[in-house]
Every structure is written in structure tokens, then in C-alpha cells.
Amino acid sequence: MKIKSNRNRTPLTNRHRIWFIIAGIIICSIFVKSGKEVVSYTSSDKYCISCHIHPDADQSWKLSTHYNNHAGNIVHCSQCHLPPEGHGYLPAKAKHGIKDVYGYFFKDSAKINWQEKKMLENAKGYVYEKSCLECHPNLFPVTLSVNGGNAHLFYTTSKEPLSCINCHINVGHYDKNAIHAHDTSFGVTVTASKTLFTESEKVEKFINFNEKIPRTSVSFEMVAIPGGTFNMGSPDNEPLRKPDEGPVRKISVSKFWMAKTEVTWDEYLAFFRATGSQGRTEGQTISNKNVDAISGATPPWGAPDQSWGKGSRPAITMSWHAANVYCKWLSKVTGKKYRLPTEAEWEYACRGGTETPYFFEGSPKDLTSIGLLKKFFKPDTSYINSKAVYKLNSNARTKEPSAVKENPFGLLNMAGNVAEFCLDFYSPAAYKADSAGMVNPQGPLTGQEHVIRGGSFKSDAKDLRSAARDFTKTKAWLVTDPQMPKSAWWYSDCIDVGFRVVCEADSSIQK
Amino acid sequence: MENIDRRKFIGKTAFAGIALAGAGALITACKRNQDAKILALPPVLQGAPKGKKLRAGLVGVGARGTGAAINFISAGPDLEIVALADVFQDKIDACRERFASFNLPIPVENCFVGFDAYKKLMALPDIDVVILATPPQFRPEHFLEAVLKNKHAFLEKPVAVDPVGIRSVITSAKKAEAVGLCVVTGTQRRHQEDYIETYKQVMNGAIGTITSAKAFWNQDHVWFREREKEWDDMTYMIRNWNNFCWLCGDHILDTHVHNIDVINWFMGKTPLKAIGYGGRHRRVTGDQYDFFSIDFDYGNGVSSHSMCRQIDSCANGTGEMIMGTEGYTNCMNTIWDLKGNVKWKFQYPKDENGNITETVKIPPYVQEHMHLVHAIRTGNYVNEAEQTALSTLTAIMGRTAAYTGRLITWDEIFKSDMDLGPSKIEFGPVNMVFETPVPGTAVTI
Fold first, then answer.
1. Strand (E) positions, A73-232?
2. How far is it, in rounded angstroms, from Cα B376 to Cα B55?
């Protein structure tokens, strides 16, 4: 049978075979050659820039050390934004290629938030660690500084994942404001020579007042929040809530004053100038209650204000500890009892009598941008632009308080702009431990991390909810700090948390 | 304008690109790391190989420095000591005389005195190797300078006295490695053939899995110097450096680091934490302790008891002991089974009369220099600075545990900003308080 079928086939002569093989080789090499050329052509700067219409990135790249350097080397787009060959180059190229094609046809480059894409957590998605190390295999060049040596030792021994751009985020795209060192001159110069307050505001009645920080020209508004009882937490049927927000309990809080705005750079720098220290060891002894010996923050690493400007923008990147010491200092210089708000005070003040998810109208389900459908049907959020600074309207940075309108109590930015430290330790089960009808609860007695509240310029709308809880992440927020030990005063990896102060209304205050 | 017609281009190339991407994923070779059991042991040599002449400079020319320099030139052919650096002229003179007595004159213009003498020595272009044998306080800056000036280096142990110095040494070690500078350290047990052979036995399972260890360096009191009238604070302390913690690191570093290093070597890691105590009763000068007793916790229930004492007329002795699931060893030359029978013993060489000696043929102090010269001349790279820095840091962790009375973790000590000594090193009065540490009273480590 077999023999027969063979006979029926046209015999393949040797000559045919040779031609067949040669043709195969030619076709293959054309395919491989053109494939190679295609790959290399589609990785050229010109090709990248042809689609990626972001002149700022082109310009900042040309000013960066990866273009403009002594050696005259130019590091091309794909050398950083794709992994090296042998480390998933082609799959990554295909992945980015598909995304780029989609973006090219369906997105408007002018509307893409490039500022947000530049933020570290996003940049990690398209800067490849392996690519950094491909060109920089020697992490210990002979001329490396002591700080650099410490930082690279930290990198090589860290159990947490660290990437090069944690510290070196501006090496590929120049940022004229970036500092890669201790900024010892941070906040040292007083910007305006206004008249200085000689004493703090005298307060005898429980009404709004304008606090004045003695020996500075800084003042800020304090809003009188009447005591009351409210439902703290979110009900089970609130959309996009998390389990740690329940159960809802009736909580009473006594009257107190709360700052109208988050602590501004002007306010925080008054503290920094008055107490700042050049040394590093004092952080250990600060736990004592002796307010006469308040020593403050060490010089920060880099630019804590992210070069967005200081003034009335909320102060950021200070640690919870620093915020707490700020309150002690403020109490000392004003003779009042300032502190961070308890979580209950914060939520009470934020709600301002409302029992809805937000102190303004709207359902988290409609406002959130999370979910597949939302990719195509963008939520209409224009009406909350005057209420909160958050992911969709912030351009990835803080705004001045004047950008939003007040909540029912007359407070600004309770939702968004920067998240805010509270006095309480965080526990996901804190509410379950509470009994209904509690007065002035202060959270768990012990803990590691503290509560933060109120969403930030980075937050999705669901995290702006009045009941939404979050907490400090000390380890993660100090991952990049190259100092050993790490700073007690500044977070190296958290740019969207600040705080606001409350002032206690003790018995000396008349109704 | 050479603008590319993007859409057309994408149309043409997308298919090829995606096809190739798929192929690329297949082509990516699956490289497997070979699980070779490399014990990273130094070579046991009868002498350093011949090669280009190596000129060495000696920094710190006291007893150990001069000894190390003699060890260096006895390691092989064409090895010379050509320059000296120290803070005291009399030390330089004594060392020069010693070399002159071997008919090996050291030119006077190559002898430098002062705190910056090391810089002048290392600036000499024809020096290939530096031997760093000052008190350990100065090792980090000397080693860094050596690396900056492209010198191979021999570092006496310990290599620093505080964590800031340790991190400096580790960083410099990595810099040296990057540019191919060889570094050998004075933890000579790692170069001793009997230890090396015992280590091989243990690594091949002779005592099973390690369950515990002890390390001890108990000896009579060590040298000290009373202050002479004309000496200022700095002169006095450096003349009596072995008794001041900021210069010496205390004897848990100075001598006991040898035993601690052996335990780290056999364990294959550094301890996770330490608790311990110590005290001072008999010392006459300085601020250090007479004894330490430290529990180094290596995790998984494995501990090493480390003790060291410098008091006369006590039960003294030095060494190590490591216990395993199938036996135990003194790390030096013998393996016992769990019943105490000798399972294996290192065979020491015979002397000229045919009697078995009790020591290895080549003294380990010379062997380590043979290793350094061997590495430089053959290209078999060596760099022991980091491992010795880690063992020194282990000793610092133990010292800190005893001084403070606290539990000290590795992470804490590795990242500590403890930086002993005056901020400015110069002769004259020193504004420092030298109180003996009292456990339980420390605010910071």
C-alpha cells in the first residue's frame, strides 16, 4: 500500500530539493532581516517621537544626563522604556506597541495627563530596572559618595523591591527643580517681610477666630465646630465602601475648633524655621512630653514641596511624628491646646451634618472612574470640581485652598487635595470594638500605624467618601530614604498626605 | 520634514512585529544556574608565584604593622616594602631600623609622619600594594584612599570600630572589586590549612546540620600605657589605643573577632540578633570592658555563645566549637561523633626528625600574604574586605548589646549611625567623655 502511494507522487529530484532549500533560506533571511530592521526601526527615537506627541518629554530628555553629558552618549527612548534584549524585549515591545496603537487611534495626546504619568508609581510601568542595570552594571564606581554608597548598599541588601528610579527619577527627563541631596536651605529664607505678630490671638468665646503665630507673619483661620452626635462609619449599602468602615455607631463629640484649611507650607515652615535642626539624632528623644525642648525636623531630602510651590498649598511629605510635634510646638507658641484631630472629630467635621456618602451630592458608583465600563463612559464629575481636588481634576498635584468651596461647617478640602493624619492608631476592627453612644472616642490604645482620612489629589472619587478610612504606611513611605537610620521627619515616598489641626475648647471658653 | 506616515507604517509592520514578538518569547533561552558547590576557599600555597615586582607601603608601623610587612616580604619573590606612614616619628624610626637590619633599607623620603601620612604614601605612583595596620578607627578612610589611588590592599582586622566605618569598608570593597583591586584581610584562620580542611569536612556533612556553637577568647590582661606628662590627649590615646573604644573597638573586636569570624564562616551567615553582657573590674586605663558574654542568634534556634575576657589567673583559652546533629568539631582540626569518638583529624606535617608537628607548615600570617600576591600575579581575584567587615559588625553588635543591655538586631546595627571618636582627628586636647558604658542606661545605641 505504502509503496503504491509513493509511486503515485511526482518524484522530487535532488535539483528540486536544492532549489527548494535555497528559496527557503532566501525567504527566511528576508523575513528575519526585514523583521530585524522593523524591530530596530520601530525602536528608533524618531519612530517613538512620531507617535508620542509630548514635546516636553523630548525637550527634557535632551536636557537630561542621558542625552546631555560629558561622554557624548545618547541614551535612546527604547533603551529605558523597553527591557534589554534577552529580558523580555519583544513581548514588552508588543505590549507597549498595542497600547500605543490603541492610544494613537482612540486618545487625544493633548488630553493625556503627562504630569500624572511622570509620577513614580506610574513611571515604574514603563521604565525597566533591567535596562538601567544593563548600562549601569557597576553600582559602586570608585568616586561614589558616602551617601551614594549607603543608598546603593541599601538597594543591594533591601528585602523590599526597590527600583533605580525610586531615587533617580529625573535622570532621563530633566527637571530643573529636582534636588538629589539634603536641601539644607529648604524653607530657610523668609519670602516676605511683612509685619510680625507679637502674640497669638486671644480667644475667650467659642466662635471662629484667626490664629496668629507669634514672631511670624503667618495666620490661619480656625472654625468653631459645635459638639454633637452623628452616625460614624458607612452603612452596608453604601456603594464602594470597605469593611473597616463599619459598623455604623452613634458617636458624640464635644465642641472644638478645626482649622479651615490643611496646614499650609507657610504655617509648617514657621515651625521648621523655629525648630529645625541640622543634626540627626534628636528624633529618638522627642517622645518625651517636655515642650520646652522641642527640636524639630532635620533638613529634608530633595524638594518636599515637589517644586509645586509653597505658600498656601498644603504642606506635604512630613511624617506623622513631625505633624504631631508641629502641634506641640504650635500649642507652646500660642498658649492653646492644638493637636491632630481624632478620627471621630475628623469625620464629624467632614460630614457637617450630612449622612450621605459625600458632604456634597452624588453616588460613589456614578463618580468613580474604576471599572471597565468607566474606561469608555467617563463619569460626569464636573459638578464636584468645586468641592474636591482629586484624581480627575488635580493634574497630579495639590491645589491652593481657594480652588474649592466650603463644606457645611465652613471647612475647605475635607475631601481631597491631601489626605490628613488623625491622632488615632489605625485598626481595621476599630469600629467593632466601639460601643454605641461613645463620647469622644480615641481609637485603639496601641498600634503601629495611624489613621489618615479624606482622600487626596491622587484619589479616585470612591476614596473621597466621608467614611473612607486609610492609614500610614511607614515602611513603604520610607523605602527610598537612603539614610541609615531613616528620617523620623520626612517621608521619602509619600507626597499626598498632610494634616490639619484642631484646638481644644476647654472649660475656660465661654459658650 | 522626515515625518513618518505612521498609520501606513503601523499597518505594514504590525504583523511582522507581533509575529517576531511571539518568536522572541520562544527563542529566549532557558538558562539554568549550575548548582555547583563552590566553597570559595582560598588556595593553600607553599609560596607566592613569581611575577612582576610588587612594592608595598606600610601604613601603621607598630608591632603588628611591622610584623605584617615582614610577613608580606616573606611570602614570595620580588616583594618589597618601599614606604612607611605613621603618626609617630619614633615608630617610623624603629620600623626603618628593623628593615635596615635585614639589609632592606627604606628611603627616608618615602617615610611620612602625621594624620595625613597615609595620603602622602598612597600618592606615590610606584606603590602597588598597601598594608593597613593602624588602629581600626582609621581603617575605613585609609582603605577608601587606597581604592581611590588604585592600590591592592591588605587590611588588618578588625576593619572598623562602628557601623558608619563598616558601611564605608563594604562600599570601598565593592568599589575595589569593580576595578579589580585585590584585598586580603588579617582574619588568618580562613587561610590556615587545618581550618580549611575541617571546613571542607563540615561542609560535606561530617557533623550533620549545625545546631549550636561557641567561640571564646579568654586571656590574661593586655598591654596598656600610663599617660606621660608631655603627652596631650590625642597623643596619649593613640599611644594607648588598645584601651579606648573609639580607637580599638574593645577586645571583642580586637581579638575575639577571629573566633566570631570562624563561626560566621562555618554558619555561612551572620547572626540576626544579639543579647549579652559584660563588665569592667580590673582595667587600669581607658573605657573598655574586661569581659563579654554574648548570645548570637542565627535563627531557627541556632545560637553561638561568644565569650571573651582579659583577666589574669583565670581559666583561659581561645578557640571555637560547633555542634551538629551528627557530631561536633573544634573547627581547627578534629571532628567527633556524638559519643565523643574522633571521626577525623587533620594530618599535620612532620618535622625533620619525622615527628608530627602541631602546626601547619606555612604560618597563616604569611599564607594570607601569599594569597594576596597569588591573586595579584595570577589574576585569581580575591576580596575579603566585605566578609571581614560583616564579622567585625557582628562583634560590634555584640559589644553594643553588652554596653546597652539591649537586644540588638542585625538590621538595627547595619543601619546605625554610630560613629565613634572625635569629629576632628588632630593632636591636642580632645573634648570627649570616656565613661565606661553602664547597661540599661543608654538612650540610643
1. 209-212, 219-225, 228-232
2. 12
Average pLDDT over residues A229-233: 96
**First-to-final CA distance of chain B:** 66
Instruction: Point out the residue among A146, A285, A484 whose CB comes nearest to the CB of B443.
Output: A285
Nearest CA in chain A to B165: A146
Which pLDDT score, from 0 to 100, does residue A290 have? Answer: 46
ipTM above 0.90, yes or no: no
Task: Give the number of other Cβ atoms within 10 Å of residue A264's Cβ.
Answer: 22
Mean pLDDT of A39-59: 81
Q: Is the omega angle on the peptide bond into residue A11 within 30 degrees of 0, that is, cis?
A: no
Read off the pLDDT band of A194 (50, 70, 90): confident
Chain B, 161 to 200: residues with Cβ < 8 Å from chain A are: 163, 167-168, 170-171, 174-175, 177-179
Backbone angles phi, psi at B69, to 5 degrees: -65, -40
- Residue B443: list chain A partners with CB under 8 A: 284-285
pLDDT on residue A374 = 77
The span from the CA of B225 to the CA of B238, in Å, is 10
Here the cell at position A54 is 509630548
Residue with cell 583591586: B181
HEC per residue, B246-261:
HHHCCHHHHCCHHHHH
Of the partner residues B3, B6, B417, the one whose CB lies closest to the CB of residue A280: B417
Contact A94/B417, CB-based, under 8 Å?
A: no
Q: Is B103 in the A-facing interface, judged by CB distances under 8 Å?
A: no
At residue A469, φ and ψ (nearest 5 deg) are -115, 150
Contact B280, B265 (CB under 8 A): no
B209 touches chain A (CB under 8 A): no
Among B372, B373, B369, B349, CA closest to B361:
B349
The position carrying cell 507673619 is A217
Peptide bond into B49 cis (omega under 30): no
How is chain A split among helix, strand and coil, in percent rounded to 5? Answer: 35, 10, 55
CB-CB contact of A499 with A456 (8 Å): no
- Which three-class secondary structure state does DSSP give residue B154? strand
Q: Does A94 touch chain B (CB under 8 A)?
A: yes
pLDDT tens figures, A203-228: 999 999 999 999 999 999 999 999 99
DSSP letter, residue A370: -
CB pairs under 8 A between A and B: 93
**Between A157 and A413, where is the model more confident?**
A413
Question: Cα–Cα distances in Å, from A465 out to A355, A361, A400, A420?
Answer: 11, 11, 21, 14
Mean pLDDT across A87-105: 88
Q: Going by C-beta distance under 8 Å and a sequence separation of 6 or more, which residues neighbour residue B164?
A: B140, B416, B417, B418, B419
List, for residues B244-298, the tens digit of each pLDDT value.
Answer: 999 999 999 999 999 999 999 999 999 999 999 999 999 999 999 999 999 999 9
**Is the peptide bond preceding residue A485 cis, with omega within 30 degrees of 0?**
yes
Mean pLDDT of A90-113: 85
Q: Is the pLDDT of residue B25 over 60?
A: no
Decide if A491 contacts B424 (C-beta within 8 A).
no
Nine-digit cell string for B8: 501606513
- The pLDDT tens digits of the residues spanning B126-173 come to 999 999 999 999 999 999 999 999 999 999 999 999 999 999 999 999
Mean pLDDT lowest among A25-29, A260-264, B21-25, B401-405: B21-25
Give the pTM. Answer: 0.78
- Closest residue to B175, CB basis, from A51, A140, A280: A140
B406 and A CB contact within 8 Å: no
pLDDT of residue A189: 65
pLDDT tens figures, A308-341: 888 999 999 999 999 999 999 999 999 999 999 9
Q: Chain B within 8 Å of A158 (Cβ-Cβ)? A: no
